[in-house]
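Deliverable D4.2, example record:
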Amino acid sequence: MSGREDPDLHALAPDRFLEEVHTFQFWFDAVEGYLPGTSYGRHPETPIQKLAGDERERLITAVCNYLVGETAALEGASGLIALAPSRMSKIFLATQVADEARHVEIFMRRLAWLDVEDAELEIERRADPNLLKFKQRLLELVGEGDWDSALFAQNVILEAMEFAVFRLHSENADPLTRELLDGVLKDERRHMGFGENELGRRLQVMPEVRLRIRDVRQELDRLVLSTFDATAAAIGVATSERNELAGVYLDAVRRLGVGD
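Output generated by the structure prediction step:
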């Protein structure tokens, strides 16, 4: 922690709790727990193993797709700042922009550690078409000024998708990739919590939002589930385990009451 006098967050009144957890100070204290001593998310003692053959190819494909998702989140979060209906939401999204930029940076560095010479070319060649379509639709929702739908697509659907994939990949990844993913996962939990909390409060007082979000969910479901399949194959997840990936996403939409 930072050494300041921190309140017991869970003892605060709900409004004061929300105010506190959306601050830059809360963000600084959170990342201080796992970023000091690292360079691009890696501690000096973590080995950079030389991978070869199919293992290297599959990891490059996975990381290229992670970069598509993280770039979508970076561009989406930055655009959502202008749409956010409150000061504290704008501040939280500013911290998320910093997180997403860091994620892009460390995944680009992971490609360099894999001896990828032209990362942009590899991303273009290996990116899953459904994930690219998802990114396009997310940025369209941001461009249309649809706060609720864009936040749902980004901080619920995309973040849940990334959280599920990163967590499962971390379980059988090489030590360096595991360390990078574990750090990113800590950020994704905050992003998902913000999206579900923000939308949950709005859904309580604006029932028309629920209908719009359901429409967006139905529109994006096919892209999300197809992306899960492609990514699972890239990281070597057995078919029998792939339902676990979709389950994290489906649980998130059900918690908001916009599932089936």
